[in-house]
Amino acid sequence: MIPDFGLLDPLWLIIFINGEIVKAVQIPFLTVLLSLLGFLVAVVLSAVIAGAIAGTEPKKEGGAG
After folding, report:
1. Which residues cross the membrane (predicted)?
2. How many beta carbons lie within 10 A of that of residue 61, not counting itself?
3. Under 8 Å CB-to-CB from 33, ≥6 apart: which residues?
4. What is the rounded (10 degree) CA torsion for 51, 54, 60, 61?
5. What would the DSSP string read from start to end of 27-46?
6. Residue 15's pLDDT is what?
7. Which pLDDT score, from 0 to 100, does residue 31 have?
8. Cβ distance 51 to 64 under 8 Å?
């Protein structure tokens, strides 16, 4: 009984292998997972935005590395 979320397929497979743990932690795990994913997305977005801002700063060297 694995929900078809597409992106979470490997993760659900790992959870499913653990068997009984699925029934015990499915709902809290989804909540934690979603909050962690939201946090990771925020971190990645902030890093990308910071990188873009840093990348648009004028550089006299004219090199990217």
Report:
1. 29-54
2. 6
3. 8, 11
4. -20
5. HHHHHHHHHHHHHHHHHHHH
6. 60
7. 77
8. no
